[in-house]
Amino acid sequence: MKALLILSDGTFFEGTNIGVAGTTTGEVVFNTSMTGYQEILTDPSYAGQIVALTYPLIGNYGINDDDNESINPQVAGFIVKEMCENPSNYRSDAAGDDYLKQYNIVGIQGIDVRALVKNLRDHGVMLGMVTTEHTVEEGLAILHNLPDYDSGAYARQVTTPRPYQWQQGEALKVQENKADNAPLHHTATAPPDQWEMPLEAGGRVVVLDYGTKFNILRSLRDRGLEVIVLPCTATPEEILQWQPDGILLSNGPGDPKALDEEVKNIQSLQQQNPNLPMFGICLGHQILGRAMGGETFKLKFGHRGANHPVKDLTTGKVHITTQNHGYAVQADSLPDDVEVTHLNLNDNTVEGLRHREKPVFSVQYHPEASPGPKDNAYLFDRFADLVKKKTEYP
Amino acid sequence: MVIGSGPIVIGQAAEFDYAGTQACQALREEGVSVVLVNSNPATIMTDVETADAVYIEPLTVSFVEQVIAKERPDGLLPSLGGQTGLNMAYRLAEAGILDKYNVELLGTPLESIKKAEDRDLFKETMKRLNQPVPESAIVVSMEEAKAFRDQIGYPLIIRPAYTLGGTGGGIAYNDKQLEQFVRSGLDRSLIHQILLERYLNGWKEVEYEVMRDGNDTCITICNMENFDPMGVHTGDSIVVAPSQTLSDKEYQMLRSASLEIIRGLGIEGGCNVQLALDPKSPQYYVIEVNPRVSRSSALASKATGYPIARVSAKIAIGFHLDEIPNAVTQKTLACFEPALDYCVVKIPRWPFDKFTTSDRRVTTQMKATGEVMSIDRSFESALMKALRSLEIGVYGLRSKGVGLLTEMEIEEKLRVPTDERIFIIAEAFRRGMMIEEVHDLTKVDCWFLQKIWHLIEMEQQLRNKPLDEFTPDLMRKAKKLGFNDHHLGELIGVKEPEIRARRKAMGIAPVYKMVDTCAGEFEAQTPYYYSCYETESE
What we know:
The complex is a heterodimer of chains A (about 400) and B (about 550). With about 400 residues, chain A is of the alpha/beta class. Chain A has two domains: about 1-145, Glucose Oxidase, domain 1, CATH 3.50.30.20; about 155-385, Class I glutamine amidotransferase (GATase) domain (Rossmann fold, 3-Layer(aba) Sandwich), CATH 3.40.50.880. Chain A has ten helices and 20 strands. Chain A has an eleven-stranded mixed β-sheet with strand order 11-10-13-12-14-15-20-19-18-16-17, with helices on both faces. Chain A has a seven-stranded mixed beta barrel with strand order 1-2-8-6-4-3-9. Chain A has a two-stranded parallel sheet with strand order 5-7. Chain A is globular, with a radius of gyration of 20 Å. Chain B is of the alpha+beta class and about 550 residues long. In chain B, α5 (about 110-115) crosses α6 and α18 (about 485-490) packs across α19. Chain B is globular. Chain B has four domains: about 1-105, Rossmann fold (3-Layer(aba) Sandwich), CATH 3.40.50.20; about 140-190, ATP-grasp fold, A domain (Dna Ligase, domain 1); about 205-350, ATP-grasp fold, B domain (D-amino Acid Aminotransferase, Chain A, domain 1); about 390-515, Carbamoyl-phosphate synthetase, large subunit oligomerisation domain (Carbamoyl Phosphate Synthetase, Chain A, domain 4, Orthogonal Bundle), CATH 1.10.1030.10. In chain B, α1 (about 15-30) links the parallel β1 (about 1-5) and β2 (about 35-40). Chain B contains 19 helices and 18 strands. Chain B has a seven-stranded antiparallel β-sheet with strand order 14-13-10-11-12-15-16, with helices on both faces.
């Protein structure tokens, strides 16, 4: 079936439908990773976005149960050059197209993705529509009446509805999970006063779920930490009743400016408990940046890929990082007690922060990788050491 | 001083000339004056404008010493002249000539090179780095052989030491075969000794091109996947870049291993790591490491737009990756990992048309003397382009003679790889063989076979189609899959110009897209181009 990709600037592309037929709208962005489409599809940071992959051959190794970064695909729509019909990999359980259909994702293939990418690069990301139903004129009329992507508090849509404890290694049973849209392989948790104390006392981390990827939770658990995931709207009181040894502010979708409540909660949490270790990732980094007095701004077309060089200014070393963000912290907006620790070598934007006195640090990129290079996992070690009080800060 | 690679021999393409020339230019850009020594005048690198002084002299210690005595270079860069350059540097160092004239060895230290090239040192180093190499043991008795089997299981490859033509060995899948081959191997070995090694039959062969600078920053330039599984030399295999059948987990596992290795060896510059990956589990082995610019790095350079030899030369004189500009974008840095938005296919070019009586089987010893590389938006069209570029008189997946083979011969030729295997696979599909059957015989991953099957399906749809039934939709499909006008003409029985005229009347023409190292993320200043059937031309 024919499908159209219509951009709000009037550009359109004709291709064929993948996933289900219908219409979807969202901010159109591109990602240059050559592998990891399943991780990208299921990354909650893509809520509200239609994702185009620049690598033309997608779906080659199929979809499997282990590579999900959340329980469902999260993208608003999917754009590829060519979706593989017959995947080949021993772990493959389904073809990409069937997977998209299963979760009602509207997608398009067969368009000149490189032409699309150049348009977004030159003019910035914009709203768009993938449709099998509308004409270009109809599509544009709908797009022009949509609210800005920036105004949406997407984190509140993708966050967990209730607290849960992350358990490692249990098979994902996505189907049974539909009822309340909470991840089933997380044990449903009782209120903290009825909480059974964990077996190991390695340290308890509360993850504030702005749209966390599973691999953040896995990375923490791998380091012997107990992981409690809370809704992003949790108040300082709700957070502290879990008696956390550390707080992780997760990745997530959207503009941090739309999350004022969350920013205020972090501010008051820091005031109440200034020595609580905090680690922010991506949106979590931006929220932390704003909570500490900084400003954020929107990038023209964002950073989305697995090949971004980041320099650690404290060591002089360069690391290749996975990135997925459309906003960044403004370096000159930060107060004196906050130090910029990492820079992106492509455009010199802020990639990492730390507080000079408090055990608080954050990165704009994704140390949990998945997809992408595993070179930055050392940041989880650093955080785990702080949580377990093995190291003094700074 | 830069040492060239000497004469071009079978097993090399012109990659060292390419690398050496690039390196000389990179050094001169930095104001370094370059003295070049090479015994082969038939190269670009010995052109007068490549270096400040060019010596065309035999690559022997005494000649090179005289050049050093005369030119008194400050440093010697040996890692761009292949094995010849490296060996020369060894001998100069051992003869004390580098010390005598106070010449600093640039780039990777000789110690690191030894660790990669000496079999025992290599195994030891990999063990220290926790990187698996295929288990092997030298045994002198049946008991020892069985003890090794108990350790690692089947299949095992048995190689007698010192026999004529490797007779007496074989591959054992069970006890009966093991006993048979060990007995015959021990009998025939002149020193009553055999090498047992885990046999990685059907495993995927994957290569990573990685770089490291003096600041310990490590990056991957490109990974490549062999079409032919383990057992065919990577120089004799069809290769695709980037890998196609690896999930991100597998890609990153092998990438991390490659970076671990380049760090562990302490290489400064480019390095090639070859790995074998089990198609049915996450198990892998490190097969080989080339601690220098190699044939694969020349391929990776052209496949990605990332000039590995050039950057290696800059690293050798002390630059860090984040101090070297990306030559294509000129705005970003050489410190990143190229993102491809196309598919690259390399096919070896064998000299069997000149050496008509030689054994055409391709095995673990490289026989190709050159290679072609093509770029397109799909694997199918990149493959078709590469096949045409071989200049062996084919325009697609049909080569002369395959149509006359019997079913038995086809099966045999699928089982035992030769230079013609790609055409045999195509012929097998023409005769109705199933993908699974061909996979069982060739062990080629079904993803690749599926693509060839797809091309044959299209070929059969096009065959003898009357020209006036050639709709624009069908024409576009055929062009996107890489059928050129000549080939289409052959299939439907008209001359090429007629097809071309019809295609042009339909308004179907190729466009040209950039190789820019970054999948369009940044503007490119000095890109190169490939043709494809898309909408926007750059």
